[in-house]
Amino acid sequence: LSGTQTVFGYVRYVVPGSPADTQGLERGMLFNRIDSELFTPETNFNRLFGPSNYSIGLAEFQGENLVPVNEEINLNKIQLTENPIHEHKVLDVDGKKVGYLMYNNFRNSFEEELNLVFADFLDKGISDLVLDLRYNTGGNIETCKHLSSMITGQFPGEVFAKQVYNNNFDDQDIFFDNQISTGESINSLNLTRVFVLSTNTTASASELLINALNPYINVIHIGDNTSGKFEGSVTLYDSPDFRRRNATLDHTIAIQPLIIKTVNKDGFSDFFDGLPPTIRQRENFANLGVLGDPRETLLNRALQEISSSIETAATEEQKTDPDLNFKLVGDDQMYSPTYQRMYVNPDDL
């Protein structure tokens, strides 16, 4: 909380089947301590989140004050594969069918499922799409291109973006496609506008999608400035050709050098301060709402642009909350080697 010593964590969303899920954590829960250690601006979160087991102590806002709650929740770490398609549905907005997709990472192993989501959107005849990238820190450039081709579809063969290298490689154009990585035909919506929700952790491949689509369709960007990471990397292993295949088992470390920057069709890049939103709307930490609910703050703001009859879905509690100013100090993914990662396939070099 800006101007104070108050630091707190909040639950953005809960991965189905995770220990947090089984322990009953819900989006919007606040906590201000781990293993009874109170957070401060100097807290070493890497140390606190390091153990395999820990407890979080809940808290809540009462006016301008964050007050501890006498409740501790024990959590343990497991290894799981998170499906990046966190939520998708079709909303009826004054007779218009609006698709909503919360997508949390660009992973090519889930492209078939993503394509099926767009098949469902096509089947239900949606006229607008709200793409929620607020917590998406990046991923595979090819998957980003395929998702962009699902949103559009009317630009096959045209330049999606350009990968700009140093002098060791020639710059490379990336083109809109009509097939996903498995060879299946892309289910395209042929939209001329898309609503994208963001926060300042929206990064890398998420920013590429916004930037690359901007010259082609109306991208109505709602939320906060994005992170400002337009560089991409490649993973190099200890093997004769630096690929993962035939990598020596004696070495357990690879390197991830940044080797490109991405540029849209019009040559725009270098957005060090992030991509500014068309409509600035920040999340309400005192009442985050339910993802996919038309009353949730960011989604509600997008629906207001789609239909003039949609009103601000603020509860009385939200209306009376003071206008608190928050600064993000990090998130639980920031210690992961895949954090804010946008990568190219080494076989494409």
Largest beta sheet, briefly?
6 strands, mixed
Provide the gyration radius in Å.
21 Å
- Mean pLDDT equals 91
What is the end-to-end distance? 45 Å
The secondary structure category is alpha/beta
Number of helices: 7
What's the helix-strand series? EHEEHEEEEHEEHEEEHEEEEHHE
Instruction: Classify the helix fraction into a percent range.
Output: 10-25%
Morphology? globular
Number of strands: 17
Binned strand content: 25-35%
Instruction: Return residue spans where pLDDT drops below 50 for at least 5 consecutive residues.
Output: 315-320
Strand order in the sheet with the most strands:
6-7-8-12-13-16
Explain what you see:
The protein is of the alpha/beta class and 349 residues long. It is 16% helix and 26% strand. It has seven helices and 17 strands. It has helices at residues 19-22, 45-48, 111-124, 141-151, 205-213, 297-306, 316-320; strands at residues 9-10, 30-34, 37-38, 53-62, 65-76, 85-93, 96-103, 128-132, 139-140, 159-164, 172-175, 193-198, 218-223, 231-233, 258-264, 279-280, 342-343. A six-stranded mixed sheet has the order 6-7-8-12-13-16, sandwiched between helices. Strands 1, 2, 3, 4 and 5 form a five-stranded antiparallel sheet that branches. Strand 12, helix 5 (205-213) and strand 13 (218-223) form a beta-alpha-beta unit. Helix 3 (111-124) packs parallel to helix 4 (141-151) and helix 4 (141-151) runs parallel beside helix 5 (205-213). The protein is globular. The protein starts with 8 loop residues before the first strand and ends in a 6-residue tail after the last strand. 33% of the residues are buried.
